[in-house]
Amino acid sequence: MATSPLYNEMFAEDRSVRAHYAAFAEWLADTPPARIAQNRHAADLLFHRVGITFAVYGEASGTERLIPFDIVPHVIPGHEWERLARGLRQRVGALNRFLHDVYHGQEILKAGKIPAEQVLNNGQYRREMVGVEVPGGVYAHVAGVDIVKHSDGEYYVLEDNLRTPSGVSYMLENRKMMMRLFPELFAQQRIRPVDHYPDLLVKTLRAVAQPGVENPTIVLLTPGHYNSAYFEHAFLAQQMGIELVEGLDLFVLNDTVFMRTTQGPQKVDVIYRRIDDDFLDPLAFRPDTMLGVPGLLSAYQAGRVTLANAIGTGVADDKSMYPYVPEMIRFYLGEEPILKNVPTYVLREPEDLKFVLANLETLVVKEAHGSGGYGMLVGPTASREERERYRQRVLDSPERFIAQPTLALSQVPTFCGEDLQDRHVDLRPYVLTGSDINFVPGGLTRVALREGSLVVNSSQGGGVKDTWVVD
Amino acid sequence: MLSRVASNLYWMSRYVERAENSARVLDVTWRMSLLVKDPALQGQDWLAPLNITGTLFPFSGRHEEVCAREVLHFMALDPENPSSIYACARQARENARAVRGSITSEMWEVLNATWLEMQQMDEERVQARGVSMFFDWVKERSHLFRGVTFGTMHRDDAYDFARMGTHMERADSTARILDVKYHVLLPSVKDVGGAVDYYQWSAVLRSVSAFEAYRKVYRDVITPLKLAELLILRGDIPRSLRFCLKQVCDSLGRVQNAQSGVTVRNAGKILAGLEHGRISEIFAGGLHEYLTDFLDSMQELSEDIQGSFFSSRTVE
Fold first, then answer.
1. What is the ipTM, given to two decimal places?
2. How many contacts does A have with B, using Cβ atoms within 8 A?
3. N or C: which end of chain B has fewer CB within 10 A?
4. Total-model pTM
5. What is the DSSP letter of A417?
6. Which CATH architecture has domain A343-405?
């Protein structure tokens, strides 16, 4: 990966405005700062009022916070998006093929493309899923693929999220907010719409009901209103017109899932679940959970209900599996990957380990099974002590870690107080797979609000922006 | 619909209605306390709201004196008092939050905004704005919520459970207001027909927004008998017991299921008593006794509704 000066999405190297930002830049210059300030304040009030909040783990229970919203959009030219879209289609297609394969014929392992023990001994590999047929062979119905633009101007996939990716409600609400606050921006140029996402999602879920189910009953299974993403669960259920259920609302009888309604039990056909595998069924997985539904796994294995996403998708989005995704694309599709992978060092490999330990100050080291930006080391910004402490952790169990070069994430101007300053962003498009693959243009743009920071996670001081694909 | 959701909707509406009724009772008490009267009776006024809401016992556990300031704080702003307006706003919002997918975004926004504003309220601010302004605000938020519910909500079972909660709570509240007022205000012989008597009875009517209706219906001076008739037996007064029970029965009829037969029948029996009752008979047996029986049967009905629709056992 070549490194060159940071890539700025809005400004070219000579600080001239890039063509796809021209309309916005003009608007920014013409709009009185007072109006912008007023509307930024209005946005905060509206988000509070609408209750678009997330709960923060580790703080007093019930703490609800806003994700900071910035009004400068992340603009992507239409032709770049077309290429991204082709790459996403290809990548998620291959990942679904891979998941079907590892729970059936295991051809890719037999072909020696991926070390078998890496897959079969992975904690996310669910033996319960071996030989289970899922409708359409689809496992990851909703995939969130995190993408960044590096200083070389290329898009790189940072990670695949194939379990219960969240954040799509912010994508929808950010757009609604921008249209409400600054409608003139949308009149001036063609910004591709995103608000049909719930339609696409419900279409996807309907398409994966078990064969023979005419008019499937679809529900969204949430851990409940203390979960950090509860707002999103409620929002999506409402937008799709499906019931938002908790574990206690469901029960299994004769391998059939029912929900408890005021009119008696009603059969459930498709569960869009936002609960991790471990908590789905206390009889099969963690016994100490109240979130799931006893007997759900058995109903699922019997083919009486569809889970979206399927159980066991974690084996494909695990960071230790990430380096092999380009190989999956070649193996299953016979194509060259359109989206690049970030070069990744797998620390179970002695050579990689040696290199990484010698270059800690330039690398990002992550736990292979971690998420949310917790427990990672950003070499260049970490203190010497932090690096030394991390080195010890890596030495204790190297197989738990991977490392990547520090990416020079692209920057977008962002309001910090009254000033515009450049901040790093990433992009999470949501890819839906049912009878075919669908998405809305763009996705959720996350921005690292702290100066110089590369961590965009909302739990770590990240904010969000509207994402525009413009023609 | 989901049993849990039905329960949340029912309680969401009950808490909104409870907050409104507390505001009404406190507002009227406040206005009455401003009337000139025997200083020895000054504290008496402020016993009424505690009696109405059945919170005299917890109040006495934490406060020594029954006075305006203490009672107002306890019933309006005290987070520790589960029936305070503050706590009701929180509960209504929590119930709504648990069923955000089943109510309209406008309904959610009203309850969420109310709760956010409620958290900004403290004694100083309430006193500065004027106590009555605060009660008006509570009532307006409740009116707004009801209006938004009426104007935006899909007319399905969810709507019926929400409405059921409103009318169950309102019937309960009107009965309590009548009962306690009847005792506290029971006219001593020298006051009958006097100015104080007039203000006290009209205060009861105003607390349930029925003053104008009384005038229109009876075109006469306010008497306890007619007042009780209006608030118990009239079918066209929206806070009367009969009106509320009619609404509860209508809602129950629409959502009934295989287990709800007894519940529907019990509600129908209460309504029938109201539709065919005579106020003279009620007074002959004692108004207080009548209202006590009524509150007991409402409590039973609430448990019936719980058992028929909300409890998971019944549908498995």
1. 0.74
2. 80
3. C
4. 0.84
5. T
6. 2-Layer Sandwich (3.30)
